[in-house]
Structures are given as C-alpha cells and as structure tokens.
Amino acid sequence: MASAAEQLAANVNFGAFAKATELKKRIWFTLGALIVYRLGTYIPIPGIDPVVLAEIFRQNAGGILGMFDMFAGGALGRMTIFALNIMPYISASIIIQLLTAVSPTLEQLKKEGESGRKKINQYTRYGTVLLATVQAYGISVGLEGMRAAGGGAVLDPGLFFRMTTVVTLVGGTMFLMWLGEQITARGVGNGISLIIFAGIVAELPRALAGTLELGRTGALSTIFILFMLAMSVFVIGFIVFMERAQRRIIVQYPKRQVGNKMFGGESSHLPLKLNTSGVIPPIFASSILLLPITIASFSANQGPEWLITITALVGHGQPLYILFYIALIVFFCFFYTAIVFNVTETADNLKKYGGFVPGIRPGKSTADHLDHILTRLTVVGAAYLSAVCVLPEILISQYSVPFYFGGTSLLIVVSVTMDTVSQVHSHLLAHQYEGLIKKAKLRGRR
C-alpha cells in the first residue's frame, strides 16, 4: 500500500511538472546559463603559456590556490576569463552588509524597501568592481613572476599584459554577477550559489579520478580511499539531517466573536531552523581568507621574507588558517542570522495579529524569548558548520586528497541542491493552485 501511494504521488508530481510550462522554461534557462558559465571557464586570458601555468599549479595544488580553484570550478588553474569567479561580488556583499549594521545611512536605505535595496545593490556592484580590479592586478603581477622549468607563465610581460588581464578578469566577474542575477530572477534557485555549485560539481569526476589514480600508484591506500568515500556519504547524510532540523515554537491565537459566530482560537507554530544562516558562513569565511592570501600566494616565492612567513602560516590545513576559518564561520553564523531573522520585528508582527507564545507576554518579552532560543540554536548551528567544514579539511591537508571531498564543498553542494529542489516544489505547488483556481472559475461560470 505504501509503495503504491508513493508511486501515485510521484505520478502526480511528474504530471504536474509536465504541465508546468513556466517551470520548465525556468529550468531550461538555468541550465543554459550554467552551460555558458562552464564554457567561459575554458576561455584563457591572452598572453599566458598554458603548459608552464599547468606545471606551476600542479606544484601548488594542495595549497590555498587549489582551494580557490575549487570555488572557481577549475577556472583559476586554467587562468581563464572567469578565474576570479564570483568571489569579489561575495566579498563586496560582506563589506556592504557589515557597513549596513554600523552605518545609519545604509541602515535607513535598507528600511526604504525596494528603492533602498536597489541602491544597496548598486553600491555592492561598485565594490565588486573595485575588489575585482585589485585582485586582477595582483594576479597579473603574480603571473609575471611565475616561472617553471619550461620558462615564464607570461609570454610577453609588461604594462599591456597587466591592463588586458585586469580588463578581462574584471569583465568576467561582472558578467558572472549579471548571470547570477538573471538566474535568480528568471531561473530556479539562487544564481550566485548555483554558479559556485556548478563549478564544484563539474570538477568532481576529475577529483574522483585523481583520487583513484593516487590509490593505483600506491600514494593512498585502498582502505583510506574507502574510508574517505564512506565519510563523504556520512557527511552528506549529516548535512541533510541538520539542515532540516528546526525548533517549532507554539503560537496561540485568541478567539474572537463576529456576530453570532466565533473565529480564531487555533494554534500554529513558528519554525526556527537550527542553521538559519545556511551555507553563507562557509562561503563568506572562505572568501575573506582567500581575498588577501591569493595575492600573497602568487608572489610568495619572489616576495620578502615576512610575506613568505605569513603565507606559510595561513596555508591550507595550518593551525592559524583553521583558527581563522572557525572564527569567521562562527561570526558569520551569528551576523547573518541576525540579518535574516529580526526577533523584534517578528514579536511585533505576532502582537499585531493577536498571536502570542503561551506563557510569554507579547512584545519585548516575546522578542527576548525568541532571541534566547535563536542564540542557543545558532551556537549549535555554528558548531555543526565548523565541524563539517574543518574536520574533513584537516584530513585532506594531511593526505593530499582533492578539496572536492571536503566538508565545505559537500555542504555547498547539498545545501544548494536542497534549496533548488525546494524552489521547484514551490513552483509546482503554485502551478497546481493556479489550476484549481481556474477550474473553480470555470465551474462558477457554468
């Protein structure tokens, strides 16, 4: 009986999907945009010797550049037009959000609704251009200093090469920012997250093949490879469980009399997710760490002694890197949760519509109660994110396993997949409701 019911539900969902023309258009648009992004990760910037560059990145595959290359979907290792990926935009978003919390002007813009949001987005774009320009110039200078046995990575170093590299990389980042916004508006899912997701997923087969090759050559034992794969499956299951976990707060609505009839009196619940901030903290933490370290890493072999020392201390898997990573994850968990869920506004809305938490007075007491619960949930959520992102990274840094099997990449892939599937279900439900309304109107006319 259960299997028949499940099959019937699947058929209904498939039938609803087949009739949802708008949803299919959105999915095709999303796939098309992601294909365009992946094609761009194979278009190299001018003036680069790909053989020498591949040799240099092969030597630094386990360092911070390898991790940046993971987020860029392999574009940095190939030094393509999308080498910076969407990271400057994410860094600019972090800076603007931090400034919004301390600047009265930006805070007022945030409260102005759609017009204020457009202005803040415009400031974020300006910040993206500035950060991308600085990073692109640092990369161009670093590339000129890169050398391997086959010669230099740049065929004709000089001012012209630097200018063309800056223009190309900044243009690639701005195009990806625009593409992400188009996916969010006209496709399915969050465009920025899907771009990072596509880069990680596209490189997974190569990472798996590289791991198996390490096992074939004897660099990694078969038992350890099986352990890594089993741990990846366990981490995926743990992420799904924790991302769906929530605390439900009972909300009671009083009865009211209208004429001779009584209305209301029902109880509902306010769901608070264990991890309200989602996948944002690891992405933000990684982008903050990668922003200064990337430029330093390009010139570490040619730079002063202090720069070489700092680069080594904050290298991937080093204690200082892990400490900074955990601290940034915890900070952004609390910071982003405070932005997403405003306890004072929620308490005021409950009071406005007559709702109350049993045993708690409406207003400030309710806000304090929600803040207390949310703080405890965020502590658990921050510990969960830190454990998922950091513990596998330690093993990866010790045994030279590809970054794609790390907790950060798995968290991004699973979270983005769950969010996209949830949006698809929402579109299907909206389509079904529209169909029911149309049928009701037709019956009413008859």
Can you put this structure into words, describing what you see?
- With 446 residues, this protein is mainly alpha-helical.
- It has 17 helices and six strands.
- The protein has helices spanning 2-19, 21-40, 50-59, 64-71, 75-78, 87-102, 104-110, 114-145, 159-186, 191-217, 222-244, 280-298, 305-313, 319-340, 343-352, 364-399, 407-445, and strands at 147-148, 151-152, 246-252, 255-258, 261-264, 267-273.
- The strands form three sheets. It has a two-stranded antiparallel sheet with strand order 1-2. A two-stranded antiparallel sheet has the order 3-6.
- Helix 8 (114-145) runs parallel beside helix 12 (280-298).
- The chain is globular, with a radius of gyration of 25 Å.
- The relative contact order is 0.11.
- Residues 1-12 have low confidence and may be disordered.
